Protein: Beta-glucosidase 1
Organism: Aegilops tauschii
Amino acid sequence: MQDLVKERLPRFTPDEAKVVKGSADWIGVNQYTTEFVKGQKLVQQRPTSYSADLQVLLYISIYYCASSLIYSRNFAVERNGKPIGPRKSWKNFVLPGMDQPGNLTRDQYLRDATRVRYYRSYLCELKKAIDGGANVLGYFAWSLLDNFEWMYGYTSKFGIVYVNFNSPTLERHPKASAYWFRDLLQH
């Protein structure tokens, strides 16, 4: 990185470097999508840009949801040779499981088999990573409840519990994925 961004990168004093070195005892990963990365020398742009500084070609496998809000990208995160997330051929997709479009009936929302497949696949691969030596401290499914999405308001359904935002009491109904998680956690 120092060779790439040169003087734009702040320099640490020797004392600052000592303070920073080894100071992180926990790193959290908040993953929305995954992109494949291939090293590629890019022409430096003026003014400089984040994308040019990366010096990589990003390859994205996309399977669009009906809502086009969230699309699945094959998971291929790897750290020190230990995979985290489903490793599939670039031609095989892990179907999106987080988002449901805002034009389904309540019963359709409650039968979210795609979300169950997504979580099952993701957690099976996470277990393989743990078995392979990855030090995983926890996992949070997004999200417990359908909620407000900045770009699409209440029409995008992320939760394992359906929320009727047209109800004065915001009535809630567990989806199939909520029951799947319950059964998983009871074992």
Observations:
- The longest helix spans residues 113-131.
